[in-house]
Amino acid sequence: MEGKWEEVFNYVSMRAYPPGSDKAQKYSVKRYASKFTVKEDELFYGEKRAVKSREEARTLFSEFHISPDGKHMGIARTRRAMCNRFYWLGMTVEIDKWVLECEVCKMKPLSFAHVKTEKKSPKSRMIQRRLFSKVSKMVEEAKKLAGYAAVDNHVKDNQAVGIGSGSTIVHAVKRLAERVKEENLNVVCVPTSFQARQLILENCLPLSDLDRHPELDVAIDGADEVDSELNLIKGGGGCLTQEKIVASCAKSFIVIADYRKDSSALGEQWKKGIPVEVIPMAYVPVSRAIQSQFGGSADLRMAVSKAGPVVTDNGNFLLDWRFDQEHNWSAVNTTIKMMPGVVDTGLFINLAERVYFGMEDGTVKIRDKNML
């Protein structure tokens, strides 16, 4: 938190951006700092003092969670006591979490903090729903930040733009539609899936395809996971082949994701495996070949709302290969693609130019291949 508050403090007090900030980072700082003021060299969110570090937040929690008569207050009272005076991003989620982890509170048989009872009270369930809702909102805001940053920094007039698939791309398309309307941009959009096509049409953007625009200026898409070397796992939504085709046709492939997708190594965050699109008749031989050569398990992805397997936009099946060790991903990708019956894999190697991660604290983190 300390670094973030320093950026906000410098902007509010001196209109100064962090050294070396690009357009996306400046936009993020300015947008976030607009909610704050400086009083007597302290940063305030409204009338609430901004807490500078996680350590300070935890110390304040310890002070406020114990009432004057020595009793441990529950979630609601602890929240009220702290939220009336202090602020840090995600504080209610953390306060709830710390109360639930409090060893003293766990010993109270009917305490709302005692969530591991056989039958949860209505208030316990309500608290858990609120926690889930807050985290969901934080993730959605992070996706929006990444999508807006990518569109603002990479889409220009008279461009052909590849539009990816998934939940994060929704925000990018909305931002693109805003810019087209506000700036009268002339762009055409090439979709990577049926979902992407519908998004383009719903937002009244010009629809095209690779027949008419085989060379794209930029493609923007999400990812299931991104490692430190910009290797990606994609295909959780089943659109990997068309996504890879569109990405390969773009002069610049830009990835947008929330903070949960940022990993040092593939498999660290994403536990559902690497998708492999296969011709239906080949799914058993391909599954056996992958498991034989690389270990792990390669299982046919089954549909949720229909009987039988998931069927891609291309009419194929998907295997999800859950690997159990690190690999040379470039070599693995090449080997699997050479197996008869394989259409493509969800490994995107040496394709991404830049990744924008929307972070929990309202900033945008950038990973660029030129900085590796």
From TrEMBL:
**Organism's domain of life?**
Eukaryota
> What are the Integrase zinc-binding domain coordinates in residue numbering?
54-107
Recorded E.C. number(s)?
5.3.1.6
Has keyword Translocase?
Answer: no
Q: Which SUPFAM superfamilies match?
A: D-ribose-5-phosphate isomerase (RpiA), lid domain, NagB/RpiA/CoA transferase-like
Which key words are in the record?
A: Isomerase, Phosphoprotein
Annotated Gene Ontology cellular components are: cytosol
Q: Which residues form the signal peptide?
A: none
Name the record gives this protein = Ribose-5-phosphate isomerase
Q: Source species, please?
A: Leptobrachium leishanense (Leishan spiny toad)
